[in-house]
Amino acid sequence: MTRICGVILARPVGRGAIIVALLATFAGTGAAAQDCARRFPDRLICENPELHAADAAMGQAYEALRARSDDPTRERLRTAQRRWLALRARACAGFYDHEDLDRARCLADMTRGRSAALAAGRITGEIVAEQAGTPALVVETEALGDPQRRCAVNIRYPRLDTAGPEAAAFNRAVRRTVEDPLFVQYGGGFAAYRGCPPPTHAFPYYDYNLDFSVTMRTARVIAVRFTLYYDSGNSHPLGVERGVIVDLAQRRALAIGDLITPEGLPVVEAACRRSLEADYDGAGGLSIDRFARIVRTTAAWSIAPGEISIGFPPSAILPGPPLATDCTVAIDTVRPYLAAGSPLR
User: Fold this and answer.
1) How many CA atoms lie within 13 A of 269 on its CB side?
2) CATH code, domain with 241
3) 252-299 pLDDT, tens digit each
4) Which of 19, 201, 270, 275 has its CA 20 to 30 A from that of 124?
């Protein structure tokens, strides 16, 4: 017998019949037919109940949009879904060091974004789940790697899908962050070639995956936290984080002075240090000079309702192997020092 993700085809069966079954499954659900035993991403989707449910929900959203569309729109939708499924497979096929865990997360995130787009009547792409009273955010995914060379280069970032100066300001700020020199430094000079470096014995693969989360989203302010997962196979994988906070009304990225007063910075530093000492067993060997400089860099900050997070580059403030060093400061700690008009108020 052959199992196609829950559907059992009894043997013997001809090759043509299998193809017909696969096409029927695709046409009916908007998701690719899955061979649970062999293919990626089918195996993970079949094995993981959460992924399987997300894929099924996407299929339902696809079918609902298809049912309320005219024939030309249905054809456009079918073509767009095929292209998106290929993009998802390519974008999530990397992560060579921690393959299944990170691949599953990638599949889940992209599938949910696609489901949200289909539910909103969008033919192409993905969207960040809509939130009442806030601008629509779409997801841009660039899959630039070459699986045959064990090279994954994936960049995902949000974009305001509207016209006008507010959207232009947000999109510029996000793009500048995506091209941050820190990401380039830890991506082996990624921006110099935007692709795969020549393979060597010392670097058996190349894995550059830049993804994001929206940590705060109001009608006025959108805060985005980017995380780079970079691994070349010859050392510890690296995680590098950068943030950007955009005030749509003012059409610019916010600086620290827009968030808290100068008197509040020492309070943030002290709270951050206490957090690091608690998380890293006293944080012995903390580089005080670099610590202070990084804490006062807007790009290191990401904000969410009720807290500030500060991310540090690998080995920047602590000796030894790269650690996912960051600290979290509760807003209540710095509430007396919030700047006038701060979105943290």
Assistant:
1) 17
2) 3.30.565.40
3) 999 999 999 999 999 999 999 888 877 776 556 677 678 888 888 888
4) 19
Structure tokens at 106: 């990638």
Which amino acid, residue 300? A
Show the tokens assigned to 112: 């949910």
Sequential DSSP letters for 219-252: SSEEEEEEEEEEE-SSS--EEEEEEEEEETTTTE
Last residue of one domain, picked from the residues 95, 127, 159 = 127
Q: Is 8 a residue whose pLDDT tops 60?
A: no
CATH number of the CATH domain containing 300 = 3.90.640.20
What is the pairing mode between strands 7-9 and 2-4?
antiparallel
Whether residue 271 sits in one domain with residue 188: no
Do 240 and 182 contact (CB within 8 A), yes or no?
Answer: yes
Residue corresponding to tokens 């793009």 = 175
Mean pLDDT, the chain, whole residue set: 82
Rounded Cα distance, 97 and 181, in Å: 24
Residue that is last in its domain, among 65, 93, 127: 127
Query: If you write DSSP's letter for every residue of 47-115 in order, what string do you get?
Result: H-HHHHHHHHHHHHHHHHHHHTS-HHHHHHHHHHHHHHHHHHHHHTS---SSHHHHHHHHHHHHHHHHH
Give dist(CA 299, CA 293) in Å, integer.
11
Contact 342, 259 (CB under 8 A): yes
pLDDT (tens digit per residue) in 16-53: 332 233 333 344 446 655 556 567 788 888 888 999 99
| Prediction pTM value | 0.84
Question: What are the C-alpha distances in Å from 118 to residues 17, 89, 121, 135, 342?
Answer: 30, 18, 5, 17, 35
